[in-house]
Amino acid sequence: MRRRRSLPHSFEDQIAAEKARLQEKITDLVNGPDRDAALKKIRQLETASHINDWLTSPGLRSPE
Fold first, then answer.
1. What three-state secondary structure class fits 64?
2. Within a domain: residue 36?
3. What is the dihedral of CA 36, 20, 41, 59, to 10 degrees?
4. What is the pLDDT along the chain (64 residues), one digit of tens a residue?
5. Residue 34 belongs to a domain
6. How far are the Cα atoms of 27, 57, 60 from residue 63, in angstroms, in the given order?
7. How many domains does the chain have?
8. Are 15 and 51 in contact (CB under 8 A)?
9. Model's pTM, two decimal places?
């Protein structure tokens, strides 16, 4: 049987999906190391999203 290949997801889509999953997860967590780790990962995903936006912006030009 052949495996179905899903359509490739963009980097932004993957970041948004992971962030949404973690935000849903932290609603069930009480204050502690697991919640802190999830919040840290959310901040890292937000930073990655901002860096990706900056790198893919049309105003960014390569050095000459």
1. coil
2. yes
3. -140
4. 677 666 668 889 999 999 999 999 999 989 999 999 999 999 999 999 999 888 888 886 767 6
5. yes
6. 45, 15, 10
7. 1
8. no
9. 0.75
